[in-house]
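pls design
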C-alpha cells in the first residue's frame, strides 16, 4: 500500500494503476484544444515551447509535430523514460521537479495544462514553481496555466463513483479537506491486496491565482473558460485557462 504521507504525486503518477485508470482520456479533445491554443497565441515558427508537467509526452509530441522546438519535463521518472523513445533533435524530455529552476531555458511559450498545478502541501511552493516558469521565459514570452474552475468543481463534486477498467473496480471518493480537493482511489489489485492512493489539488480560485501571478512578476493577459477558448465565466465555465505575459 502506498503511503499518503509521502507526496502523493511521487507515487501515484509512477503507478501502473494511474495509467490504467485514465487510459480512456479524450486525447482527440486535447489535441483540438492545443491546436486552437496555438492558433490563438500564434507563436513564431522558430519558437521554443516548454510542456511543464508533460506526463508521457503525448501533448509535447503533438506540439513538436506542428513544427516547434519542444521540451517536456515531468517529475515522473517512468513517464519521462517512456516519452524519451519519441525524442529527436527538436523534441527533448527531462525528469524535473517544477519547484527547481529550469536549466533548459529560455522559452517563448510555457504550457502547464490539464490541472498539473497546485499539488504541493506547502502553498508557497506554488509561487516558487511559477517564479521558475517565469524565469524560464524570454522577455515578452507567455505562460499558459490550464486549471479547473474550482468554484464550479466544488459545487458539482461527485462524492463517490465506481469505475471498472480492465476488470479492476476503482472506488473513487471526493471531498474538500483543508483547502484541497481530494480524490481517494481504492481498489483491490490482481494479487488481492488493498490499494489506496490520493490525488490532492489545492482549491485555488481566480483571486488566489491573481495573488500568485503578482508575486511571480507575471501579468494576466486573459482568462479563458474552456477548451474552445470561450471567455471565462465564474459560474459556468469548466476551466480557468490563464494566459500570462512576462
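designed seq:
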Amino acid at each position: 500500500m502506498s503511503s499518503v504521507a509521502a507526496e502523493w504525486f511521487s507515487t501515484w503518477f509512477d503507478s501502473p494503476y494511474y495509467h490504467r485508470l485514465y487510459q480512456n482520456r479524450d486525447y482527440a479533445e486535447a489535441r483540438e484544444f492545443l491546436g486552437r491554443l496555438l492558433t490563438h497565441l500564434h507563436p513564431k515558427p522558430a519558437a521554443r515551447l516548454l510542456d511543464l508537467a508533460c506526463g508521457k509526452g503525448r501533448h509535447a509530441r503533438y506540439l513538436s509535430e506542428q513544427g516547434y522546438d519542444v521540451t517536456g519535463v515531468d517529475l515522473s521518472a517512468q513517464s519521462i523514460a517512456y516519452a524519451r523513445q519519441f525524442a529527436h533533435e527538436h523534441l527533448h524530455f527531462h525528469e524535473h521537479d517544477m519547484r527547481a529552476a529550469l536549466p533548459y531555458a529560455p522559452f517563448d511559450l510555457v504550457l502547464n495544462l490539464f490541472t498539473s498545478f497546485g499539488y504541493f502541501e506547502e502553498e508557497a511552493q506554488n509561487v516558487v514553481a511559477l517564479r521558475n516558469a517565469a524565469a524560464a521565459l524570454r522577455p515578452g514570452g507567455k505562460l499558459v496555466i490550464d486549471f479547473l474552475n474550482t468554484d464550479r468543481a466544488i459545487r458539482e463534486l461527485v462524492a463517490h463513483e465506481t469505475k471498472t477498467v480492465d476488470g479492476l473496480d476503482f472506488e473513487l471518493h471526493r471531498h474538500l479537506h483543508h483547502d484541497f480537493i481530494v480524490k481517494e482511489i481504492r481498489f483491490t489489485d490482481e494479487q488481492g491486496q488493498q490499494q489506496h492512493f490520493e490525488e490532492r489539488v489545492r482549491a485555488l480560485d481566480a483571486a488566489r491565482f491573481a495573488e500568485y501571478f503578482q508575486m511571480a512578476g507575471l501579468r494576466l493577459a486573459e482568462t479563458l473558460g474552456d477548451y474552445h477558448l470561450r471567455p471565462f465565466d465564474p459560474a459556468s465555465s469548466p476551466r480557468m485557462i490563464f494566459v500570462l505575459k512576462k
